[in-house]
Automatic annotation (TrEMBL):
<dbReference type="Pfam" id="PF04434">
    <property type="entry name" value="SWIM"/>
</dbReference>
<dbReference type="GO" id="GO:0000724">
    <property type="term" value="P:double-strand break repair via homologous recombination"/>
</dbReference>
<protein>
    <submittedName>
        <fullName>Zinc finger SWIM domain-containing protein 7</fullName>
    </submittedName>
</protein>
<dbReference type="GO" id="GO:0097196">
    <property type="term" value="C:Shu complex"/>
</dbReference>
<keyword id="KW-0479">Metal-binding</keyword>
<dbReference type="InterPro" id="IPR007527">
    <property type="entry name" value="Znf_SWIM"/>
</dbReference>
<feature type="domain" description="SWIM-type">
    <location>
        <begin position="76"/>
        <end position="114"/>
    </location>
</feature>
<keyword id="KW-0863">Zinc-finger</keyword>
<keyword id="KW-0862">Zinc</keyword>
<dbReference type="GO" id="GO:0008270">
    <property type="term" value="F:zinc ion binding"/>
</dbReference>
Length: 140
């Protein structure tokens, strides 16, 4: 079952994208699907998208990270390429306990991509490196 869930989640996000492109909203059946697949992360992630809390940070070389302003006011860095977030909930709920597929921040990244709701920020290579290193220093 675990190997199927990511494929189901990816398909659901594709359906959200299609629905949003056609009607500029997510229908109730897909909202229920998000709640079913992503559990308690779904509604808070949608709130983050509504608040435009997701920023795509891009360097001239094309390296990309996402920053999500959490409901607590703290900024978290997310990496969609490897499904990772720097928040404590990701470390505990996703990595340690395997209770959830994603935290609300990384789900907000995927939803904001699907809905075209990402803010964009272009930074230098040095600035992106500083963003990434700042996260490591906070963890260390």
């Amino acid at each position: 079952m675990d190997s199927t869930l990511p494929a189901v989640a990816e398909e659901l996000l594709r359906e959200v994208r299609r629905a949003f492109e056609q009607a500029s909203h997510v229908p109730d059946d897909l909202l229920l699907g998000l709640k079913f697949i992503f559990g308690p992360s779904a509604v808070p992630a949608l709130d983050l998208v509504d608040q435009r809390s997701v920023t795509r940070v891009v360097s001239p070389s094309g390296r990309t990270a996402y920053q999500v302003l959490g409901s607590s006011g703290k900024l978290y860095t997310c990496y969609s390429s490897c499904h990772f977030c720097t928040c404590p909930a990701f470390g505990f709920t996703v990595l340690q306990k395997s209770e959830s597929l994603l935290c609300k921040h990384i789900l907000a990244v995927y939803l904001s991509q699907a809905m075209g709701a990402c803010q964009e920020l272009t930074v230098s290579e040095e600035q992106l490196t500083s963003i990434l290193l700042a996260e490591e220093e906070e963890e260390g």
